[in-house]
Write a structure and sequence with these properties.
421 residues; alpha/beta; ten-stranded mixed β-sheet
Length: 421
């Protein structure tokens, strides 16, 4: 098989999210339909129009040694925690070159963030103003760099095939995984640790998003605030955390006897060229990305049984995504069980594609689709099968496939496809 046509598989998963400090507790929370959204406490949030968010269930400072944590932005802390879990889950016990399982020059990382070290930047500016130049941390620049999470994971596992950080707003995590697939298919790497991370729960980003009218202001009922497809939806809820997968060529995984979760079929990409922040209302760009996916992978829509939708809980975006899917998939959309997991995790921006890829992989592996919560009065424009109330069993026999959609400010559209093994 030529290097440009190699099969790519998922051999490890890791996460730290508003539902749990690892992938197992996150998956348990998704199946239970548990919301991770809570009130924001503290004086600095008191005057904001939005005072709710989906904070990480386990603070990274409780997990990482203090000397390491103090040198990392919160986004990089999350990435390290999720990557460590994924690396161990894939069966690796040491950095590349130390145990003979993978050569450093055959290992890469692609971990994205939509905003980068924004909390470091803002907090250190406060230090500068309040305490003076000499109190600014010398670690500030490495901490605020958007490529900091990927670079730090690469340093930890000794990745030398390439360390990358695509930035495409809320599509960043998904684009990172698609880029990692191409690294393996073009022969540059045998194994790539990929995903997304974000940590932007800070008064300034929240105030800015709120003033754009993008966020829910349902401060009185935080657990019900993120409600994709519901008539009462009024915007997304900001979340934080990371989701990371270990991708590997099928032959490399087989040679070391690795457990395989699923195959990664590929990605579809497009750009709206419509507006810097608003989705294209007809779903034209999303449809182009899905069609690009089908053309690139040869995926038969009849095989699709599950979608982890972008579905942020914004009035316009939720319907545009489903219009696009109907345009491309036609009647095949009717047999796809759709989950909107942001109803539970909130929207992790650049980290969304990472944790939603983990959720999609686990849905295929367990043949079980998580529910969408807070969907009490479905919008009449929603013409699709939304999983509600309880998890939905997926077909028990034969190969099944699923897709994960991620879209971002700037008109970025990324869709990823996976198949059971």
């Amino acid at each position: 098989m030529s290097p440009t046509n190699r099969t790519v598989v998922v051999t490890g998963i890791g996460a730290t999210t508003p539902l749990g400090g690892d992938s197992a507790s996150t998956w348990e929370g998704l199946l239970a339909g548990r919301s991770g959204v809570k009130p924001l406490e503290g004086e600095r949030f008191a005057e904001l129009p939005v005072r709710i968010a989906a904070l990480a269930a386990v603070d990274p400072n409780e997990v990482l040694p203090r000397p390491l944590a103090r040198k990392l932005d919160r986004s990089a802390q999350f990435a390290i925690i999720a990557a460590r879990e994924a690396w161990a889950d894939a069966g690796y016990t040491a950095a590349a070159g130390e145990d003979g399982a993978i050569a450093p020059e055959r290992l890469g990382t692609v971990i994205a963030s939509g905003i980068g070290g924004v909390t470091t930047l803002l907090d250190q500016y406060d230090v500068l103003k309040e305490k003076g130049v000499r109190r600014v941390s010398p670690h500030t620049v490495p901490m605020l760099m958007p490529n900091g999470p990927s670079a730090n994971v690469g340093l930890e596992i000794n990745a030398q095939a390439g360390v990358h950080t695509p930035v495409s707003a809320c599509a960043s995590g998904a684009e990172a995984i698609g880029y990692a697939v191409e690294m393996i298919r073009n022969g540059r790497a045998d194994v790539v640790v990929a995903g997304g991370t974000e940590a932007a729960i800070h008064p300034l980003p929240i105030a800015a998003f709120a003033n754009m009218m993008a966020m829910s202001k349902n401060n009185e009922n935080p657990e019900q605030a993120s409600r994709p497809y519901d008539k009462a939806r009024d915007g997304f809820v900001l979340g934080e955390g990371a989701g990371v997968v270990v991708l590997e060529s099928a032959e490399h995984a087989a040679a070391r006897g690795a457990r395989v979760y699923c195959e990664v079929l590929g990605q579809g990409l497009s750009a709206d060229s419509h507006h810097i922040a608003q989705p294209e209302p007809t779903g034209r760009g999303v449809a182009a990305a899905v069609q690009n996916l089908l053309d690139n992978t040869g995926l038969d829509p009849a095989e699709l049984v599950h979608l982890n939708a972008h579905a942020t809980s914004t009035p316009q975006g939720d319907t545009a995504e489903l219009k696009a899917l109907r345009k491309v998939l036609g009647d095949d959309l009717d047999h796809i069980a759709i989950s909107a997991t942001k109803s539970m995790t909130g929207h992790l921006l650049g980290g969304a594609g990472g944790i939603e890829t983990v959720a999609t992989v686990l849905a295929l592996y367990n043949r079980l689709a998580p529910p969408t919560i807070n969907l009490d009065d479905i919008d009449e424009d929603i013409d699709a099968d939304i999983v509600r109330g309880e998890p939905r069993k997926l077909p028990a026999d034969g190969p099944i496939s699923a897709i994960n959609n991620s879209f971002g400010f700037g008109g970025h559209n990324v869709t990823l496809a996976f198949r059971s093994v």
